[in-house]
Amino acid sequence: MSENKEPHVAKFVYDFTEGNKDLKDLLGGKGANLAEMTNLGLPVPPGFTITTEACKVYLESGEEPAALRDEVSAHLDALERNMGKKLGQPDNPLLVSVRSGAKFSMPGMMDTVLNIGLSDKSVQGLAKQAGDDRFAWDSYRRLIQMFGKTVLGVDGELFEEALEAAKEAKKVTVDTDLEAADLKKLVTTFKKIVKKEAGRDFPQDPREQMDLAIEAVFNSWNTDRAKLYRRQERIPGDLGTAVNVCSMVFGNLGPDSGTGVAFTRDPASGHQGVYGDYLQNAQGEDVVAGIRNTVALAELESIDKKSYDQLMQIMETLENHYKDLCDIEFTIERGQLWMLQTRVGKRTAGAAFRIATQLVDQGLIDETEALQRVTGAQLAQLMFPRFDEHAKVAQVARGIAASPGAAVGKAVFDSYTAVKWSRSGEKVILVRRETNPDDLDGMIAAEGILTSRGGKTSHAAVVARGMGKTCVCGAEELEVDTKRRRMTVPGGQVVEEGDVISIDGSSGKVYLGEVPVVPSPVVEYFEGRMHAGAHDADELVEAVHRIMAFADRKRRLRVRANADNAEDALRARRFGAQGIGLCRTEHMFLGDRRELVERLILADTEAEREESLKALLPLQKQDFVELFSAMDGLPVTVRLLDPPLHEFLPDITELSVRVALAESRQEPHENELRLLQAVHRLHEQNPMLGLRGVRLGLVIPGLFTMQVRAIAEAAAERKSAKGDPRAEIMIPLVGTVQELEIVREEADQVIAEVEAATGTELKLAIGTMIELPRAALTAGQIAEAAEFFSFGTNDLTQTVWGFSRDDVEASFFTAYLEKGIFGVSPFETIDKDGVGSLVKLAAEAGRRTRPDLKLGVCGEHGGDPESVHFFHEVGLDYVSCSPFRIPVARLEAGRAATQSAGSDHR
């Protein structure tokens, strides 16, 4: 291995006593927080962390850093001296776990191996040490099972089937009822499976076990499921994972032992209290895997009062220290409490808003930090509809409300089917006994997840909450048969694959059939139909109200709406819009006005064209009167006609059929024939790059001047009615300043005529859309004739990338996302390097020419959370988006203004 592959770091291994919570880049989240808890004096089993830098070297070169083995040996020697045991020695063995731990939490996506150090010899020593044969053989079978699947690539189902067979032979239903002799036989069976499937014996050398496990954890960074999860959560792929080697503590030593997961607050609701799961006589993976149903954490008080009280004290310490909801893994070994992990916990959208305001009230964080604890994506989730509680639909079961939302879909029983059906346009609910990391792609594809096992800390629950996906776990009344693709509900009714079910992640209820939905209370709040503080309108609405108030006070970016009529404008205003950033006038030319537009297109003489324009003028004027009235006192940017004219004519195939039928029947068809000739005349190979936008205004005399006159007359009428119209006229698809100058000269003349005729002074700003690369590159020139720029990022993305959006999204975008060429579609989040560079360049050039140039964006990116931050950074004045995305944009604009370096709450 070449030396330049290794980074210049002092070392690759850190003892838990050496790190702290701020070293997540180097030690990963798990290692950094184990070190932090050690520093706090909490009971953490001794251990050490192999850094993410070591992982990066391994992934780049295929070899571990040359210094790593010696460093691991030195730390292992120190650990053995500390514990008074040696790894895997026959009489008094030290056992360790090898666990992954990236900077950002990726629950279940990477590998873990417990009980490393057990062998045919040391299992005897462990039995003697613990005074419990059953425990020792149970730990050994777990090691072979985890090691076989994780390190040697053996199909995990083979071990599960052997375990089920052992239980059936013993006529028991849970693994804890298997005795030492049964587990000893199972170990022999497991070793045979490894030999057959992996082509080698299970390794008996404990150091070989540990080294292979470390390598497997490094490799698990690039498994398909880990890469899929990173794409879903937008986690960079070059971070690597740390590896934590920790001395084992055992929760499977009998009824005075156990393992659990605890939250300092409810991750589903945000309420304070005792939340979590506990499982007696078990190891940690049993809780997360959901293979046995747990008891509520509160029951630990009656099982082990001393450990419970100590845990409650530690939870309070950790929450006050991290100033946030903490997710904790712990083990009790014969009455001794050990802390195995803590992290800032994933939470539902509702919990995020409640917790942020609670922590402000407790004085733990300020308003600025509260804004960083929530996201626009979470707010969008809260605006989804919910089930109608009064609907008469059969409830068949109730599980644990793991992740809120109202999900309806066809039941499917494996991940492959979920993905396949979803790609065919079907909405599906993934139904499993319990999920595991291999189910991730199905969980992403599904509307919601339903499991019959597991609790709020199971894999399904944790991953669903992180994705904002509806989830109901632990619905024990359901008998899920994945092999026969069906489930049986209480009373014996069978739900087959393809039957529609509904799940409520807020209540845990499961229904047969489709439950109707009603608006979210958060939407009702934004609509003005629910006021913060009214009934217990819920603390959620109150929390959203407060966070939005924080955001509005902090943000610099203004937020406008894309709206084309008075109804949308009024709704946008209720949602907090500060004007209209894009009124698409083409939408006003459809419906019962289509015939007038057809007459305009078919006009053969100037008189016919003027007659059509004259008929359209009063209708256009009334559109603008209504719009200016709805947005009185706020700016309204009106885009002149943009799309190709053929969009206003009938479909060419449909029209050809009509003409052919009329001719065959010898019926009059002169108008249809003229229309067909016009459609053929206007046909373009690439209409989005053809006769549209400003080109229409230059080629069709009177079209733009009619629209400008309608805007000016409407503004004058509103002024005479004591209104305050603030109209702005936007010229689309400008590529050169000369186009804008010609249209502007005509517009200025029309506005002057209206001012003279009405005796009203009109201050109508005239600007343009920047949606072509040439416009961005010559923005300094264009600004000489424009009072504002609005970036049309939809078209700009198409023209920069050379994409036809309607074609490429359906044809190859899925492949590009899967191959990692895109982290996210450039139509969803702005491409900062390409399209974003042009936006930045144009903004700077435009303001050099005209310092008071107003800058906005009106493409769909205006409502995308990540894009809003970019627009804030490059100095735009406003973003414009659809009415329902306005609250999201307001929130993200506030977050962008208060974004602090290094703050990241995923």
UniProtKB/TrEMBL annotation:
One of its GO terms (molecular function) is kinase activity. Residues 64-293, 299-350 form the Pyruvate phosphate dikinase AMP/ATP-binding domain. Residues 542-894 form the PEP-utilising enzyme C-terminal domain. Signal peptide: none annotated. Mg(2+) binds at E771, D795. InterPro entries: ATP_grasp_subdomain_1, PEP-util_enz_mobile_dom, PEP_util_AS, PEP_util_C, Phosphohistidine_dom_sf, PPDK_AMP/ATP-bd, Pyruvate_phosphate_dikinase, Pyrv/PenolPyrv_kinase-like_dom. Keywords: ATP-binding, Kinase, Magnesium, Metal-binding, Nucleotide-binding, Pyruvate, Transferase. Its EC number is 2.7.9.1. PROSITE patterns: PEP_ENZYMES_PHOS_SITE (PS00370). Substrate binds at R584, R639, E771, G792, T793, N794, D795. Its cofactor is Mg(2+). The active site is at H459, C858. Gene3D superfamilies: 1.20.80.30, ATP-grasp fold, A domain, ATP-grasp fold, B domain, Phosphoenolpyruvate-binding domains, Phosphohistidine domain, Pyruvate Phosphate Dikinase, domain 2. It catalyses: pyruvate + phosphate + ATP = phosphoenolpyruvate + AMP + diphosphate + H(+). Residues 426-508 form the PEP-utilising enzyme mobile domain. Belongs to the PEP-utilizing enzyme family. NCBIfam families: PRK05878.1 (NF004531), pyru_phos_dikin (TIGR01828). This is Pyruvate, phosphate dikinase. It comes from Streptomyces monashensis.
